[in-house]
Amino acid sequence: MTTVIQLFATEPVSDLQRLQRELVLAHHILDRDGQGLDIAGHITARMPGAETFWSNRFRLGFDEAVPSELHQVDMALNVLHGTGEVSPALDLHAAVYARRPDVNAVVHTHAVNALALASIGTPLAMIDQQASIFFEDITFFNEHHGVFREGEGEAGLVADALGQNRAAILKNHGIVVVGASVQEAVIGAQVLESAARVQVRAMAAGTLDPLPEASARQSKKFLGQKDIFNWKFDYYARRVLRERPALRDALESRG
Questions:
Q1: pTM for the full model?
Q2: Is 142 a residue whose pLDDT tops 90?
Q3: 19 compared with 10, residue with greater pLDDT
Q4: Is residue 1 part of a domain?
């Protein structure tokens, strides 16, 4: 099936160019979803098995992501390609990649509704079938040690707490969502924030009534298919490309 990357490409796209374009689109998709909090939050991606990963330049917002502002760093956060500073908070991403060879994309945002749950110590409940992709696949990190600072071990603590799960809600902080692809991580982050929004509203209205376990498992199996993540990502990518023509120009100019 033709992906959105192929639709607007004017010439053959290499695997690296594809990854970079997906990463740029990821930033704009989550920005449109309201998860871009000024210059905070990070989305990274790596080629499968690589000991390096790509990120947006430090001090840029999600809405400012373009291919020319991406840089490649190693696991010690040394810049290997591109220019600009690297956020020390990317230690978290390096720690996750080091522990999870199955993960090729990491999203960390301060999504408002997920943060609302985190602030009152409430885990995500399976009350929305879309949230079932996180059934038995999300953890709650019930600690806070201040803003990420290099060398203090915070990144390792969060990565350890994430374990083999798809996501973690961080108390008083935000969310971490991972995936085997950019598509999985980004749509996962979007679904998590949407599910948190439903839960916050439901808690204000009455008592939560979670899905039966069997239903949650069946829903997770269906909604967790790779194709569904890809289809959703392409849909949201088409929307941001229609709404942000300058972004399309920036992606096409990459060649």
A1: 0.92
A2: no
A3: 19
A4: no
Helices and strands counted in the chain (H then E): 9, 8
How many whole angstroms separate alpha carbon 8 and alpha carbon 250? 11
Token digits of residue 239: 């929307």
Distance CA(53)–CA(92), nearest Å, equals 12
Indicate whether 254 belongs to any domain: no
Which domain range does residue 149 map to?
13-247
CB burial string 214-249: b at 16+ within 10 A, e below: eebeebbeebbeeeebbebbbebbeebbeeeeebee
The token duo for 178 is 């991972």
| Residue 70 vs residues 17, 44, 45, 190, 240: alpha-carbon distances, Å | 11, 10, 11, 22, 19
For residue 125, is it within any domain? yes
| CB burial of residue 204 (10 Å; 0-12, 13-18, 19+) | exposed
Give the neighbor-by-neighbor strand order of the sheet with 174-179: 79-81, 70-74, 52-56, 42-45, 105-109, 174-179, 167-170, 138-141
The span from the CA of 44 to the CA of 61, in Å, is 14
- List the CATH number of the domain containing 137: 3.40.225.10
